């Protein structure tokens, strides 16, 4: 089975901190995604990557950056955490354009 | 621009009755359509997809969905609901490329 692992289930960070969320997949998938999930808003795409060192902005990239140095790892970086970035963050991976995405368990980030 | 609508925040149904969770979408090009389910405190799981071919697709846990091109809809259905089907359901269309958008989600509540 495909496994997508996010490094933390819960995180509490202070306003202004630089925050790293890590995601690793074990199925050699080309595509990786970061979403945030907020009640009533569904999942919103922050960034995605379709190859190593390649990245594209999603719908809400402001305040975030990403890094993909290796195929299996996709990191989301909050440059200076703010309280409006308190959310559930979901990482996903997929291969091709017609296959489903596999999701990690999510990281619930609270910025205080 | 791509968009997706799940018009019902919540669907309530009695166990044993049929259920429908509605989804309409707008994407460019041929749509690839997905449904995902999220159980409490868990990541998203893939349920089913429409890529091409038969308009009625079958997926996990007895769910099915009907693709209607003229109405740009992809409603999720199940002939007989179970209490264990209670969860949050997301419709997720994909247009050209890798980007998948998600609806706001519909919470299904099945009463015993």
Task: Kindly list the characteristics that best describe this protein.
heterodimer, A: 112 residues, mainly beta, Immunoglobulin-like, 7-stranded mixed β-sheet, 4-stranded antiparallel β-sheet, 54% strand, globular, B: 112 residues, 5-stranded mixed β-sheet
Question: What is the tally of beta strands of chain B?
Answer: 11
Helix content range of the residues of chain B, please?
Answer: under 10%
At CATH's second level, what is the architecture of chain B?
A: Sandwich
Largest sheet of chain A: 7 strands, mixed
What does this structure look like?
The complex is a heterodimer of chains A (112) and B (112). With 112 residues, chain A is an all-beta fold. Chain A is 0% helix and 54% strand. Chain A contains no helices and eleven strands. In chain A, the strands form two sheets. In chain A, strands 2, 4, 5, 6, 9, 10 and 11 form a seven-stranded mixed beta sheet that branches. In chain A, strand 5 (42-49) and strand 6 (56-57) form a beta hairpin. Chain B is mainly β. The model of chain B has no long low-confidence stretch (mean pLDDT 93). Chain B has a single domain, classed as Immunoglobulins (Immunoglobulin-like), CATH 2.60.40.10. In chain B, a hairpin with a 5-residue loop joins strand 5 and strand 6 (44-50). Chain B has a five-stranded mixed beta sheet with strand order 2-11-10-5-6, with no helix packed on it. Chain B is globular. The chains are: A mainly beta (112), B mainly beta (112). The interface between A and B is medium-sized, with 26 and 24 residues.
In short:
Chain A is mostly beta strands and about 110 residues long. Chain A has strands at about 5, 10-15, 20-25, 30-40, 40-50, 55, 65-70, 75-80, 85-95, 100-105, 105-110. Chain A has a single domain (about 5-100), classed as Sandwich (Immunoglobulin-like).
Which helices and strands, and how do they pair?
The complex is a heterodimer of chains A (112) and B (112).
Chain A: E1 4-6, E2 10-13, E3 19-25, E4 31-38, E5 42-49, E6 56-57, E7 64-70, E8 73-78, E9 87-94, E10 102-103, E11 107-111
Parallel strand pairs in A: 2-11
Antiparallel strand pairs in A: 1-3, 3-8, 4-5, 4-9, 5-6, 7-8, 9-10, 9-11
Chain B: E1 3-5, E2 10-14, E3 19-21, E4 24-26, E5 32-38, E6 44-50, E7 56-58, E8 64-68, E9 73-78, E10 87-94, E11 106-111
Parallel strand pairs in B: 2-11
Antiparallel strand pairs in B: 1-4, 3-9, 5-6, 5-10, 7-8, 8-9, 10-11
């Amino acid at each position: 089975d495909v496994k997508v692992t996010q490094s933390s289930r819960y995180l509490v960070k202070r306003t202004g901190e630089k925050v790293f969320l890590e995601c690793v997949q074990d199925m050699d998938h080309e595509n990786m995604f970061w979403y945030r999930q907020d009640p009533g808003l569904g999942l919103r795409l922050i960034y995605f990557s379709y190859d190593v060192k390649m990245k594209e902005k999603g719908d809400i990239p402001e305040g975030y950056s990403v890094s993909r140095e290796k195929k299996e790892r996709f990191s989301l970086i909050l440059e200076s955490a703010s309280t409006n970035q308190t959310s559930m963050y979901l990482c996903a991976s997929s291969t091709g354009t017609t296959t489903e995405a596999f999701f990690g368990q999510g990281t619930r980030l609270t910025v205080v | 621009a791509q968009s997706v609508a799940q018009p019902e925040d919540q669907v309530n149904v009695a166990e044993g009755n049929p259920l429908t969770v509605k989804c309409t979408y707008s994407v460019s090009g041929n749509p690839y359509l997905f449904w995902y389910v999220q159980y409490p405190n868990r990541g998203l799981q893939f349920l089913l997809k429409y890529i091409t071919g038969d308009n009625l697709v079958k997926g996990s846990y007895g769910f099915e969905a009907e693709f209607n091109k003229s109405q740009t809809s992809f409603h999720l259905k199940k002939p007989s609901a179970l209490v264990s089907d209670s969860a949050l359901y997301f419709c997720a269309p994909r247009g050209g490329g890798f980007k998948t958008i998600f609806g706001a989600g519909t919470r299904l509540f099945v009463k015993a």
